[in-house]
Structure formats: structure tokens, C-alpha cells
């Protein structure tokens, strides 16, 4: 059975997408106004609006109230929404989130050690200092998230930043689960020590040590969750 031909709106969306792919429209560029765009494409204003809606849904363009549509910059929002919903609806378990994080962030730690700049090291040291000052307190979680984002930026690869940002909600959920299961100042300090070890290895430019430190950090998190589960079921 032959496929249905694309609608006029789909053709408009494909035309705009082709201009973006060909770099005739670049991230941050404004699209023509709807009336002008409709005139250029030989379609109605409503068709242009519907075609643009398809591209907004795909994350390729952004439309703010009262402003012209612009080509989107690289961002994590579409994937972020997907992962957040999967966690919220319990289609992803904390253990599955940790498995993904572990695989991704061990690689991030090694690349960060190889590619970090002096500014990256300063940013990481600043965040770790904030973490150190809030160990065992509510503010720690916010700084913990900032540490992992700063580490991703140190890779000099925006895709790693986007992936870590897209995992912000699952990241927070897994961190909250780990923090909630720690008992006493010594336990919290032990958990924080992993971040200090990662910072030291990245600062020294030692990729192997950074990967080992990140691997040990996740082993500690997994053990904390496992031990808590054993206490509850025993």
C-alpha cells in the first residue's frame, strides 16, 4: 500500500529543516515572520504555523510569545523530558539510572583529566569547596549536581554536557536515594571523599586515576543503596 503523500505543513517543516541542515539557517538565527514566510513558500500562514509546530516538537526551533521563531541551539530538553517522565512513571529504576551514569561518567572523568583547562580545574575546585562546606546538609545535593556538570564541561565536548544535563532529574533522584541512605557524619564524609579523589586526578591530568576514582565513587554509591536495602529487608 502506497504511503500517504506529505501534507503541506510537513513539506514546510522539511524545507525549514533542510535549510538548518545545510547551515543556511544557523543556531540562534531568526526565521522570517509567518506572513513573509508564507509568501515566500506560496502557502497560507496557518500552514507555516503548523509546519513550525512540528519543528518545535522536534526541538529544532523555538517560538517565544510575541517573538519571531529562532533556530534552536544544542540543548538537552527533549531527552531530559523523556528521562524525567520515565523515572517519574517508574519505567526506569534507580539501579538502571546508576548503570547508565556509571558508564557515561567514567568516560567523562578520563576525558576531563586529559582536556581540562586551568579554568575548568578552578571551577571544579570551587564546586568541591562548596560540597565540602555542606557535607550532610540539604545544600550538598545542588553542589553535587553542579560538580558532575562541571566535569562534563571539562571534556570540551558539548555532547557530554548535554547528556549530563538531560539526566538532571534522574541524576537528582539517584543522588537523593544515595544521600538518604547514608548514616552519620562519617558516612557522608566517606561519600564526599570520592569527589575529592576525582578532583585531584583531574587536576593532575591523570586520566587513569580519574577513571578509577569515578569507578570507586559509583561502587560506593551502589554499596550504600545495597546495604540500605538489606537493612530494610532483614
- Give the number of domains: 2
CATH superfamily of the largest domain: GntR ligand-binding domain-like
Helix segment tally: 11
Query: Unreliable stretches, pLDDT < 50, 5 or more residues?
Result: 228-234
The overall average pLDDT, rounded, is 83
Number of strands: 2
Tell me the structural class: mainly alpha
CATH fold-level name of the largest domain: Four Helix Bundle (Hemerythrin (Met), subunit A)
Q: Which quaternary structure do these chains form?
A: single chain
SSE order in H/E notation?
A: HHHEEHHHHHHHH
CATH architecture of the largest domain, please?
Up-down Bundle
- How are the strands of the biggest sheet laid out side by side? 1-2
Radius of gyration: 23 Å
**CATH C-level of the largest domain:** Mainly Alpha
Q: First CA to last CA: what distance?
A: 60 Å
Based on Cα principal axes, name the global outline: elongated
Which key features would you list for this structure?
11 helices; mainly alpha; elongated; two-stranded antiparallel ribbon; Arc Repressor Mutant, subunit A; 2 strands; Four Helix Bundle (Hemerythrin (Met), subunit A); 234 residues
Topology:
Layout: H1 8-21, H2 34-41, H3 45-57, E1 61-62, E2 70-71, H4 77-88, H5 94-115, H6 118-133, H7 140-153, H8 158-166, H9 168-180, H10 184-204, H11 207-233
Structure overview:
There is one protein chain. This protein is mainly alpha-helical. It is built from eleven helices and two strands, in the order H-H-H-E-E-H-H-H-H-H-H-H-H. It has two domains: 8-71, Winged helix-like DNA-binding domain superfamily/Winged helix DNA-binding domain (Arc Repressor Mutant, subunit A, Orthogonal Bundle); 77-233, GntR ligand-binding domain-like (Four Helix Bundle (Hemerythrin (Met), subunit A)). 72% of the residues lie in helices and 2% in strands. Strands 1-2 form a two-stranded antiparallel ribbon. A hairpin with a 7-residue loop joins strand 1 (61-62) and strand 2 (70-71). Helix 5 crosses helix 7, helix 5 packs antiparallel against helix 11 (207-233) and helix 10 (184-204) runs antiparallel to helix 11 (207-233). The longest helix has 27 residues, at 207-233. The protein starts with 7 loop residues before the first helix and ends with a helix. Mean pLDDT is 83; it is low at 228-234.
Amino acid at each position: 500500500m502506497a504511503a500517504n503523500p506529505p501534507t503541506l505543513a510537513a513539506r514546510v517543516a522539511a524545507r525549514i529543516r533542510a535549510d538548518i541542515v545545510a547551515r543556511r539557517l544557523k543556531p540562534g538565527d531568526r526565521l522570517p515572520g509567518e506572513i513573509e514566510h508564507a509568501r515566500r513558500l506560496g502557502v497560507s500562514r496557518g500552514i507555516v504555523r503548523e509546519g513550525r509546530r512540528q519543528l518545535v516538537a522536534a526541538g529544532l526551533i523555538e517560538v517565544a510569545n510575541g517573538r519571531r521563531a529562532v533556530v534552536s541551539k544544542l540543548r538537552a530538553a527533549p531527552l531530559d523530558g523523556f528521562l524525567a517522565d520515565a523515572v517519574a512513571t517508574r519505567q526506569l529504576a534507580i539501579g538502571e539510572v546508576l548503570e547508565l551514569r556509571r558508564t557515561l561518567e567514567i568516560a567523562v572523568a578520563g576525558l576531563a583529566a586529559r582536556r581540562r583547562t586551568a579554568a575548568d580545574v578552578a571551577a571544579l575546585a570551587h564546586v568541591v569547596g562548596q560540597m565540602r562546606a555542606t557535607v550532610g546538609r540539604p545544600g550538598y545535593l545542588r553542589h553535587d549536581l553542579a560538580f558532575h556538570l562541571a566535569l562534563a564541561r571539562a571534556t570540551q565536548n558539548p555532547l557530554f554536557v548535554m547528556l549530563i544535563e538531560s539526566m538532571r532529574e534522574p541524576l537528582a533522584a539517584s543522588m537523593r536515594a544515595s544521600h538518604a541512605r547514608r548514616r552519620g557524619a562519617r558516612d557522608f564524609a566517606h561519600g564526599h571523599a570520592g569527589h575529592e579523589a576525582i578532583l585531584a586526578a583531574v587536576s593532575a591530568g591523570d586520566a587513569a586515576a580519574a577513571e578509577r576514582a569515578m569507578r570507586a565513587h559509583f561502587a560506593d554509591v551502589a554499596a550504600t543503596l545495597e546495604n540500605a536495602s538489606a537493612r530494610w529487608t532483614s
